[in-house]
C-alpha cells in the first residue's frame, strides 16, 4: 500500500522537500515497518524516529510501533514542538457550541486581549479572579537576533490538543472557565502570539491553572516556530 506522510518544521529542511513523503508498505504494515522504510530512505531521520525525538502521528494521535496502518490513515511525522520536549477528531465545528469553540482557537489574525478577557468574564457571574498569560514575539532568542517569526501548526491536531488542555484544566483545577488562543503564520516582532485567560472564584486557583495551561501547551501542541536571523532561518526545537 502507498502511504502519504505529512512533514512539519525542521523535517522539511532535513529532507530538503516541502512536499509530503510517500512510502510503500505491505498491506499489513505497522508503524515499526514505516520507521524501518524511512530509515532506509534517510538514516538520519530514521535515527530520530528510533530515539523518539521525532514522533509518528496516526489520525491525530501519537502512534506506537505496533499500530497497524491503512491507506486511509492520516500519518504525520512530528519533530520536537516549538515549546517543549518531546482517534481521528470526531467533533466538527457544526457540533461544537459556537461560544465554546471561540474559547479554543488557532488563528492567523491578531486578537484583542480585552475582548478575550471579556469573553471569559461573560461565562459566569461567579468569576472573581482572572489570570492571563500573553506570549509576544521578541527580537532575540537563544543568543541570536530575530527579525520575524513564522509559526506552523498541524491543522486539526493542534486544535484537538488545545481542547484537551482546556478540558483537563476545567477538570483538575478549581476554575470556572479557560480560554486558549494561539496564532500561526508570519508574526512581526512585538506582536501577540499566544493568550491564556483563566477565570476562577479566587486568584490563586486562576494563577495555578494559567501556569499549567501554558506549560502543557508548550509540551504537547504540534506547533513549530521558524525564526528569521542574520544567519538565516532557524527552526526552534525547544525554548523555556
Short structural description:
Its EC number is 2.8.1.12. By secondary structure, the chain is an alpha+beta fold.
Give an account of the 3D structure:
With 240 residues, the protein is an alpha+beta fold. It has two domains: 2-78, Ubiquitin-like (UB roll); 93-236, Aldehyde Oxidoreductase, domain 3, CATH 3.90.1170. The chain is 30% helix and 31% strand. It is built from seven helices and 15 strands. The protein has helices at residues 10-15, 31-41, 43-50, 98-101, 113-121, 157-172, 203-220; strands at 2-7, 21-24, 55-58, 61-62, 75-78, 104-107, 129-136, 140-141, 144-145, 148-153, 177-183, 185-188, 192-200, 223-229, 232-236. The strands form four sheets. The chain has a five-stranded mixed β-sheet, covered by helices on one side. Strand 8 (140-141) and strand 9 form a beta hairpin. Helix 2 (31-41) runs antiparallel to helix 3 (43-50) and helix 6 runs antiparallel to helix 7 (203-220). It is globular. It starts with a strand and ends with a strand. Belongs to the MoaE family.
Topology summary:
Blueprint: E1 2-7, H1 10-15, E2 21-24, H2 31-41, H3 43-50, E3 55-58, E4 61-62, E5 75-78, H4 98-101, E6 104-107, H5 113-121, E7 129-136, E8 140-141, E9 144-145, E10 148-153, H6 157-172, E11 177-183, E12 185-188, E13 192-200, H7 203-220, E14 223-229, E15 232-236
Parallel strand pairs: 1-5, 6-11
Antiparallel strand pairs: 1-2, 3-4, 3-5, 7-13, 8-9, 10-12, 10-14, 11-13, 14-15
Helix pairs in contact: 2-3, 6-7
Describe the structure using short key phrases.
240 residues; alpha+beta; Ubiquitin-like (UB roll); Aldehyde Oxidoreductase, domain 3; 2 domains; 5-stranded mixed β-sheet; 4-stranded mixed β-sheet; Mopterin_biosynth_MoaE
Amino acid at each position: 500500500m502507498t502511504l502519504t506522510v505529512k512533514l512539519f518544521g525542521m523535517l522539511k529542511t532535513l529532507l530538503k522537500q516541502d512536499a509530503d513523503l510517500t512510502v510503500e508498505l505491505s498491506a499489513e504494515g505497522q508503524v515499526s515497518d514505516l520507521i524501518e522504510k524511512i530509515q532506509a530512505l534517510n538514516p538520519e531521520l530514521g535515527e530520530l524516529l528510533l530515539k523518539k525525538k521525532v514522533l509518528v502521528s496516526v489520525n491525530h494521535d501519537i502512534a506506537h510501533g505496533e499500530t497497524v496502518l491503512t491507506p486511509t490513515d492520516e500519518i504525520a511525522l512530528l519533530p520536537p514542538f516549538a515549546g517543549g520536549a518531546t482517534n481521528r477528531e470526531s467533533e466538527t465545528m457544526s457540533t461544537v457550541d459556537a461560544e465554546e469553540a471561540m474559547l479554543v482557537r488557532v488563528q492567523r489574525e491578531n486578537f484583542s486581549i480585552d475582548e478575550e478577557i471579556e469573553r471569559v468574564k461573560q461565562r459566569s457571574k461567579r468569576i472573581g479572579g482572572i489570570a492571563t498569560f500573553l506570549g509576544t514575539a521578541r527580537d532575540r532568542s537563544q543568543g541570536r537576533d530575530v527579525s520575524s517569526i513564522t509559526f506552523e501548526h498541524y491543522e486539526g491536531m493542534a486544535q484537538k490538543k488545545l481542547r484537551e488542555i482546556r478540558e483537563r484544566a476545567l477538570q483538575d483545577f478549581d476554575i470556572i472557565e479557560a480560554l486558549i488562543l494561539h496564532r500561526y503564520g508570519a508574526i512581526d516582532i512585538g506582536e501577540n502570539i499566544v493568550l491564556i485567560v483563566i477565570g476562577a472564584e479566587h486568584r490563586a486557583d486562576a494563577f495555578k491553572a494559567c501556569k499549567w495551561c501554558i506549560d502543557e501547551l508548550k509540551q504537547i501542541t504540534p506547533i513549530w516556530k521558524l525564526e528569521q536571523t542574520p544567519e538565516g532561518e532557524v527552526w526552534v526545537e525547544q525554548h523555556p
